[in-house]
């Protein structure tokens, strides 16, 4: 009973409830633990279902006959296949297919990484027939490949190169907005050819290296003599446009003593080192 409660409520929650009972000198069995009503009713419901299934006549219930055969079948795939294509060949919606195969989070199922999929038993024949027709027509099962970022490249330039938008490229590779992808990172991109080349296990497991997350702070800056928008922007590692926008400036001319609000990145500063005085020997 406690194991079932832990399955519903969480092992840590059950352990804390047991410790509370122990400190109070109270019994620690299932029926005495203080727990949410959902968990408290979970085991009784399962027990009720068990008894009804075991003896339906006793409770006036007529259960339908269930054939002694698997409801789901595991399919082994020797080559990469797009997730949408797999769902289409099985005659399923993409949502249904992903619910049955929740580990398939990418637009392509990489055979070298995960070479099995789960299908309803009554969909297997349809899947195989459609798969044979698809391959007889010479259509690739997957239109995805990998690309290793080079020094100086950006997501925007790679997206343009492979015929994708930067937004789609970020979404497929789960790159948060505002983060840059560093050189030598491996990206999942659309293939520019109809000839299918499967993604290797090493490429599928390759690390995606992102730039550190930038945090920002507000600074009240007093303009000094000789300051310009360009010099202030360069000094604080921001753009002139951000200064103009934050302060609603109508001209680029600044006056000494003028106050500006700057939104600047937090930059790690070198620690202040203690200056050691020279030792004087006598």
TrEMBL record:
Coiled coil: none annotated. CDD domains: LysM. Residues 145-189, 219-262 form the LysM domain. InterPro entries: LysM, LysM_dom_sf, Lysozyme-like_dom_sf. PANTHER family: LYSM DOMAIN-CONTAINING GPI-ANCHORED PROTEIN 2, MEMBRANE-BOUND LYTIC MUREIN TRANSGLYCOSYLASE D. This is Membrane-bound lytic murein transglycosylase D. It comes from gut metagenome.
């Amino acid at each position: 009973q406690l194991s079932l409660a832990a399955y519903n409520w969480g092992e840590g929650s059950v352990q804390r409830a047991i410790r509370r009972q122990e400190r109070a000198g109270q019994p620690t069995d299932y029926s005495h633990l203080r727990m949410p009503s959902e968990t408290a009713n979970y085991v009784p419901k399962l027990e009720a279902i068990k008894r009804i299934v075991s003896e339906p006549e006793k409770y006036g219930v007529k259960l339908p006959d269930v054939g002694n055969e698997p409801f789901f079948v595991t399919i082994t795939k020797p080559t990469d296949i797009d997730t949408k294509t797999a769902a289409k060949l099985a005659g399923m919606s993409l949502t249904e297919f992903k619910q049955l195969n929740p580990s398939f989070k990418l637009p392509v199922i990489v055979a070298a990484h995960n070479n099995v999929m789960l299908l309803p038993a009554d969909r297997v024949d349809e899947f195989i027939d459609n798969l044979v027709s698809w391959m007889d027509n010479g259509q690739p099962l997957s239109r995805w490949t990998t690309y290793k970022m080079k020094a100086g490249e950006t997501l925007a330039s790679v997206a343009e190169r492979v015929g994708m938008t930067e937004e789609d490229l970020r979404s497929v590779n789960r790159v948060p907005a505002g983060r840059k992808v560093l050189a030598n990172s491996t990206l999942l991109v659309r293939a520019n050819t109809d000839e299918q080349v499967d993604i290797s296990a090493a490429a599928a497991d390759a690390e995606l290296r992102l730039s550190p997350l930038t945090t920002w702070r507000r600074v009240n800056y007093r303009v000094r003599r000789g300051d310009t928008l360009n010099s202030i922007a360069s000094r604080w590692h921001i753009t002139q446009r951000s200064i103009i926008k934050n302060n609603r400036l109508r001209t680029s001319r600044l006056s000494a003593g003028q106050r500006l609000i700057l939104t600047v990145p937090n930059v790690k500063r070198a620690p202040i080192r203690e200056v050691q005085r020279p030792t004087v020997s006598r």
